[in-house]
Amino acid sequence: MPSRGSRRRAGEAGGRAGGAGRMDAGRCPPGGRLDMSHGFVRHIRRNQIARDDYDRQVKQAKEQQLRRRLTPAPPRPRRPDRQVYRAGRRGESGPPGRRARSEASSGSSSSSRERRPRGPALFCLEYEADGGQVTSVVVYQDNDPEEVVEKVSAQNQLEPALHQALRQRVQEELEKRRVKR
Asked: Which regions are flagged for Low complexity bias (predicted)?
């Protein structure tokens, strides 16, 4: 039996010679390329492709979300949630200057009393007709519900049932707000 040292030397020598022999035998192609027949790299590539697909989907979802936010307004205009100042609503029949002069020249005491605010303003009533025309009337604390509905009816053709329902609703809103103040 050979000694331990001789075995080691023989193994080392055999290992070097065997390794060189395998390379020369054609097991690995020349140029130092790796043998990919084990299939491990295939799993890595599949994971990379899946990751790239996922990243692409997330990026597209973000872009679509931004597009949805930047879309134009819906075809039917929405009602504003809060009171909005709209200039020139009173004088729709003509230019504002001409309308103001005609009101000043008429100067009846009843019309000047209606325009003058009586008590604090409670709310602004906005009535939207079927055609989309919005009529705004400021309702004051001392207003009569029938008077408010008449102002709305002057600009819109209201059916008697709708006239009565609007008067009822204005009455309820006035009572609610008068109690709070």
From this structure: 93-111
